[in-house]
From TrEMBL:
<dbReference type="GO" id="GO:0034274">
    <property type="term" value="C:Atg12-Atg5-Atg16 complex"/>
</dbReference>
<feature type="repeat" description="WD">
    <location>
        <begin position="312"/>
        <end position="345"/>
    </location>
</feature>
<dbReference type="InterPro" id="IPR045160">
    <property type="entry name" value="ATG16"/>
</dbReference>
<keyword id="KW-0853">WD repeat</keyword>
<feature type="repeat" description="WD">
    <location>
        <begin position="398"/>
        <end position="439"/>
    </location>
</feature>
<dbReference type="InterPro" id="IPR001680">
    <property type="entry name" value="WD40_rpt"/>
</dbReference>
<feature type="compositionally biased region" description="Polar residues">
    <location>
        <begin position="60"/>
        <end position="69"/>
    </location>
</feature>
<dbReference type="Pfam" id="PF08614">
    <property type="entry name" value="ATG16"/>
</dbReference>
<dbReference type="GO" id="GO:0005829">
    <property type="term" value="C:cytosol"/>
</dbReference>
<feature type="repeat" description="WD">
    <location>
        <begin position="356"/>
        <end position="397"/>
    </location>
</feature>
<feature type="coiled-coil region">
    <location>
        <begin position="119"/>
        <end position="222"/>
    </location>
</feature>
<feature type="repeat" description="WD">
    <location>
        <begin position="536"/>
        <end position="565"/>
    </location>
</feature>
<feature type="domain" description="Autophagy-related protein 16">
    <location>
        <begin position="17"/>
        <end position="208"/>
    </location>
</feature>
<keyword id="KW-0677">Repeat</keyword>
<dbReference type="GO" id="GO:0015031">
    <property type="term" value="P:protein transport"/>
</dbReference>
<keyword id="KW-0963">Cytoplasm</keyword>
<comment type="function">
    <text>May play a role in regulating epithelial homeostasis in an ATG16L1-dependent manner.</text>
</comment>
């Protein structure tokens, strides 16, 4: 019990306390009885002595009487006649002694009775405490049984915990093996991708070599035919116009083939000169004539939107990008649901035309080619994808970036495109061969790109605008702006650039002098994300952007004043806006899946 009490059992402590109380009560009662018994024995001894003394007095009464009488007579002298006789004195003395003995015996008897009553009370108290002790012992036994059961449960839980710990260790080791296998597979996939890209590069180089050989053979054949034609006698029956046209074409081709060095020198001279933002026309050296589309706006004066004409939940989740086709009646939207939806603008309504599938990630940018027959989209799957209008599946995947592709734009032809990515690169693509013709390394995340005639402009996370000549390898100009750049919009005449940035401002740069011409601000306008898009109107009279509070803000480019702000259907931040080429409609998309047509 002492060991169990030392271990902290409360029942053992109570039991020791009760035993100590009982032992103290026994010692107290024993001390009282030890005092009472000697006193009672002493009383009995005195009673025996008195009895013996009385017997002695009765046996020698005469001697004592005579002696007493004689003494008293001698002492009293003449007054002895008046003293009582000795027998009377003895009787009186005996009575006094008996009275004292009776008093002492009564007192002792009273004490005995009192002590007996106290002893009875103590015995009843002892019995009661014994019963309480028995109940406490039973309670202690019950608690000990419960404690034993709890100990068994603890042991069982410990065994289960140990088993689960072993299972967890096994799962952890298995997960480490799986992670190692995943890393190996990722490395193998990366190696395979590198091999695939290298093979594509080699295939493109071989194709270029074959094309060059074919072009050289063609040039030799044309030269021989030209020589034969020069030596041939012309018949009067042949048409002089037809023959003259054929000879002229052959002569021009031969002249182009014979003077490559002069053309290269001329191109280098052009690159050294400042940018010319005029459209250029012509053919590539020794190649097939490449068709270029002049984006001439059909809008004379854009109409300011005033009210929401149609509101749709266009996607399953957030809508990130929107773009009008060249004919102003076809619209493309892309969102985080990895879908691109094409819409027809009919009678002031948006009617679903087609859904383009196959994107590997969220859509961040959408663009039509100059003919309106192809759609190019940037995705978070480290690639850009190309669709043909009318075909649901992707036509081509432009892979090669190592991070999210944030922008993808066509150049002035349908066979060339430019992409920007968060891997700090800008890539030029030959869409005919799905081949990256050039990679430009930049110093910051690229959030948007725009393309001119022979110029590429990129906006970056380090608050800078960079200009690249497609004919040269280096950056030609850097313009710093305040705030991270979220979007770029180039006017149709390629003379002005609209910038949207995270400092809640829009800026217009005059590309002729490379200087910021206007800065647009408004109370309540806030750039909602790193991919918020702002655009020029087709006639470059207005700048349009959406805010994080769901409103559209329109500024006058010439005066710099806020022209109007539109509020209504949008309850979430507006991600992108688009203004059709005819200037009659505006479309905005937001983070709440809404696509809104404004008129």
């Amino acid at each position: 019990m002492a060991g169990s009490g030392a271990s902290g059992d409360p029942a053992a402590g109570w039991k020791r306390h009760i035993v100590r109380q009982l032992q103290q009560r026994d010692r107290t009662q024993k001390a009282l009885f030890l005092q009472l018994v000697p006193a009672y024995n002493h009383l009995l001894e005195k009673a025996e002595l008195l009895a013996k003394f009385s017997e002695n007095l009765q046996q020698k009464p005469n001697d004592a009487t005579s002696a007493t009488h004689q003494g008293c007579w001698e002492e009293s002298g003449p007054d002895s006649a008046q003293s009582p006789p000795p027998a009377t004195l003895r009787v009186k003395w005996q009575e006094e002694e008996e009275e004292g003995l009776r008093l002492d015996c009564g007192e002792m008897a009273y004490q005995v009775v009192k002590k007996s009553a106290a002893l009875d009370r103590l015995q009843s108290d002892l019995e009661e405490r014994k019963s309480r002790l028995a109940a406490l012992e039973a309670r202690v036994a019950q608690l000990q049984a419960a404690r034993a059961q709890q100990v068994r449960q603890v042991e069982e839980l410990r065994r289960q915990n140990a088993a689960q710990r072993e299972a967890y260790e096994a799962l952890r080791v298995h997960a480490e093996h799986q992670e190692a296998a995943l890393r190996r597979l990722q490395e193998e996939a990366h190696d395979l991708l590198e091999q695939f890209l290298q093979r594509k590069v080699r295939a493109a180089a071989e194709r270029n070599l074959r094309n060059e050989r074919r072009e050289r053979a063609k040039q030799v054949r044309l030269s021989q035919e030209l020589k034969k034609a020069a030596k041939r006698t012309v018949s009067i029956g042949e048409s002089p116009h037809t023959l003259g046209d054929g000879i002229r074409e052959q002569t021009e081709t031969l002249a182009l083939a014979a003077k490559p060095e002069s053309l290269e020198n001329e191109a280098c001279g052009k690159w050294k000169r400042p940018f010319s933002f005029k459209k250029r026309r012509g053919h590539s050296i020794g190649g097939v004539p490449e068709q270029r589309y002049q984006s001439i706006p059909v809008c004379v004066a854009a109409r300011l939107p005033t009210w929401a004409q149609d509101v749709l939940d266009g996607h399953l989740s957030e809508v990130n990008a929107v773009c009008f086709g060249p004919n102003s009646s076809l619209l493309a939207t892309g969102g985080a649901d990895r879908l691109i939806r094409l819409w027809n603008v009919v009678g002031g309504r948006l009617e679903g035309n087609q859904t383009l599938e196959g994107a590997g990630g969220s859509i961040t940018s959408v663009d039509f080619d100059p003919s309106g027959s192809q759609v190019l989209a940037a995705t978070y799957n480290q690639a850009a994808q190309l669709w043909k209008v009318g075909e649901a599946q992707s036509k081509e995947t432009l892979s090669g970036h190592k991070d999210k592709v944030t922008a993808a734009k066509f150049k002035l032809t349908r066979h060339q495109a430019v992409t920007g990515s968060r891997d700090r690169t800008v890539k030029e693509w030959d869409l005919g061969r799905a081949y990256c013709s050039r990679t430009i390394n930049v110093l910051s995340y690229c959030n948007d790109v725009v393309c001119g005639d022979h110029i590429i402009i990129s906006g970056h996370n380090d608050q800078k605008i960079r200009f690249w000549d497609s004919r040269g390898p280096c950056c030609t100009q850097v313009i710093p702006v305040q705030g991270r750049v979220t979007s770029l919009s180039l006017s149709h005449d390629q003379l002005h650039l609209l910038i949207c940035s995270r400092d809640n401002t829009l800026k217009v740069i005059d590309l002729r002098v490379s200087n910021i011409r206007q800065v647009f601000r408004a109370d309540g306008f806030k750039c909602g994300s790193d991919w918020t898009k702002a655009v020029f109107s087709p006639d470059r009279s207005y700048a349009l952007a959406g805010s994080s509070d769901g409103a559209l803000y329109i500024w006058d480019v010439d005066t710099g004043k806020l022209e109007s702000s539109l509020r209504g259907p949008h309850c979430a931040a507006v991600n992108a806006v688009a203004w059709c080429c005819s200037g009659s409609h505006v479309v905005s998309v937001d983070q709440g899946r809404k696509v809104v047509l404004w008129h």
